[in-house]
Amino acid sequence: MTTGPSADLTKTDAARLLPPAARRLHLDVLTAFVGTGRPLTRQQLEVAAGRGGAEPAAVLAELSQRDVLAYDDDGEIRAAYPFSPSPTTIRVAWAGSPPIFAMCAIDALGMSAMLDRPVAIVAEEPDSGRPVKVTVDRQLAEWNPVTSVVFACATTDRCCPSVDWTCSRINFFTSRAAAADWAVRHPDVAGETLEQELALARGVAEFGAMMRTDRSGP
Prior knowledge:
The chain has helices at residues 11-16, 20-36, 42-49, 56-65, 105-115, 162-165, 176-185, 196-207, and strands at residues 70-71, 77-79, 83-84, 90-93, 100-102, 119-124, 131-137, 140-144, 149-153, 170-173, 191-194. By secondary structure, the protein is of the alpha+beta class. Helix 2 crosses helix 4 (56-65), helix 3 (42-49) packs across helix 4 and helix 5 (105-115) crosses helix 8 (196-207).
């Protein structure tokens, strides 16, 4: 069992380091989101975690330690990167999909490669509410406005899950200038502005192979 997330691991890396019982449960959670837009309940998690004689508490703890899932005080899922159980400012859709929300901009950009299908992202720029729309087909994307970028916070604070220390601070902006203006108004958030190609590449690297059961790349 790990003692915490590593700065050197993508979420896909972390997922693939899970023991078999935890990896199976993680895939179950992601599959539930894809089909319903909702996470498994705590009761469903515990039942699924105990399959094959595994100790449910240990399996669920492993998922939290690897920071591929995060739980609330009642043990319910509050983050299943790249999916958010709660509404965010970033919505993702594909043909026949239920309502889906992404944890952050990078998570949203990685979904198409992870699901192996085109997706449409609609996001709201922080503070202004101006829309950013991105159509992603695996490792290709069309952005509207064409000047759109992603601002990604940077932090070394690893005291808590990603949902608490980065997710709300990785967002789409309509332009590099808009991202810079936001950063000036939020001097407590250190980070970098990512151009479109780099932002998409990071999303694919982070999540592209997460649901694959082989070891091939994104």
